[in-house]
Design a protein that fits this description.
By secondary structure, the protein is α+β, with helices and mostly antiparallel strands. The chain is built from 3 helices and 4 strands; from the N terminus they run αβββαβα. Helix content is 28%, strand content 23%.
């Protein structure tokens, strides 16, 4: 199922963006781009305490009761297939802590 032409951001998306920016991450909101270009809501750039280098993470924001759509699952599988180290650079996040965990910051 294609992404809506004018998707509505999840209620917690702005809060997640603001928290990550305040913690020094670079956050790009790509939720309004066509799914073929973005496939997620946010791209987060930051230093990983796990790999000790700057990483790019695709983030799909979900409310606590939200479920991934078929196209989001398809994008997730495509990203996982590209990951050479077995660590998929995509998370479904309901809060900033989900992103921080991926970067090894908590």
């Amino acid at each position: 199922m294609p992404r809506p032409r004018h998707p509505v951001a999840d209620k917690n998306q702005r809060e997640i963006e603001r928290n990550l920016i305040n913690l020094g991450f670079i956050v790009r909101n790509v939720s309004s781009l066509p799914v073929s270009r973005a496939g997620c809501d946010l791209y987060v750039f930051g230093y990983s305490r796990i790999t000790h280098r700057v990483e790019i993470l695709a983030v799909e924001v979900k409310t606590p009761d939200g479920q991934p759509t078929a196209s989001e699952r398809e994008f997730s599988q495509a990203v996982a297939a590209l990951a050479s180290d077995g660590k998929t650079p995509l998370v479904y996040a309901t809060c900033a802590e989900d992103v921080l965990r991926w970067f090894g910051a908590i």
